[in-house]
Amino acid sequence: MNEWIARRSQHDKASQSHPGAESPRGFNSTSIDSQYQRDRARVIHCASFRALQSKTQVLGLGESDFYRTRLTHSLEVAQIGSGICEWLRNNERRPASEEMLMWIPSFSLIEAICLAHDIGHSPFGHGGEVALNYMMKEHGGYEGNGQTLRIVAKLGEFSVSCGLDLTRRTQLGIIKYPVFYDDVANYPEQENKPDSSTLKTRQWNIDAWSPPKCIYASDRETLDWILEPITASDQQQFLKIDKSNHRHHKSQSKAFDTSIMELADDIAYGVHDLEDALALGLVSKSRWQASVADKLADMPGNPISAEIGFYNRELFSNSNSGRKHAISKLVGYFIRNIDVKEQAGFTHPLLRFQATMEPDAYQTLLALKRFVMDEVILRPELQALQFKGQQVIIRLFEIFLDNPKRLLPVDVYREYRENDENRRVIADYIAGMTDVSAGKIYHKLMTPTSGSIFDRT
Question: Looking at the whole model, is its pTM more than 0.70?
Answer without folding.
Answer: yes
